[in-house]
Amino acid sequence: MNRLYANCQKVSVHRSSTPSERNARIKAWEEFRSYQSPLWELWSAQAQASIVQSSGYWRRVALLYLELSPRFFRSGYLRDAVAHRLKQAALIASERKAVQASLLGALQRRPSTGHFVHDCRLAIQVADSCFLATLDQLCHQEDGWTRGRARRMRQAIQRHATPAASNQSRTSVL
Fold first, then answer.
1. What is the DSSP letter of 38?
2. Are residues 26 and 50 in the same domain?
3. 37 phi and psi, to 5 degrees?
4. 3-state secondary structure labels for all residues of 49-66
5. I need a surface site. Which of 78, 121, 134, 173 has the fewest CB within 10 A?
6. Which domain holds residue 57?
7. Which helix or strand (DSSP H or E) is residue 33 part of?
């Protein structure tokens, strides 16, 4: 995108009226207007299914997107969809660590992209003792934004873990 914009700037510096320069200017701006971001492919059904089913290209793209959390028109909706698909996926250890790092980074990012509830739902799936310890540290920070979001994420994880733990204790008693 930056390359296309730079090309538009380059051909628009001298506004001469020769036909070849005018055609170059028109072509550069048409290329700029017709640009389609590869990120929009994450909306496709094939990419969404691939995120859930395999640790291939689309899952790597989804993890990178979650880590970078770019800001553009409708980026929050796309981030929510990616988080939802990653929540459904069977992540390997390295992918879980990448998701945890992205979620911890999202706690401190202002303004946030996407809905925080999707981050909490994803955190429930990837939480481990190390992640919870880091969340506990963030719960004691002076920054109210980070502290509040860390507490809400921690509470969501605990709420989800409590019924499962009580169900396991009931089945072991029976």
1. G
2. no
3. -70, 135
4. HHHHHCCCHHHHHHHHHH
5. 173
6. 38-173
7. helix 19-33
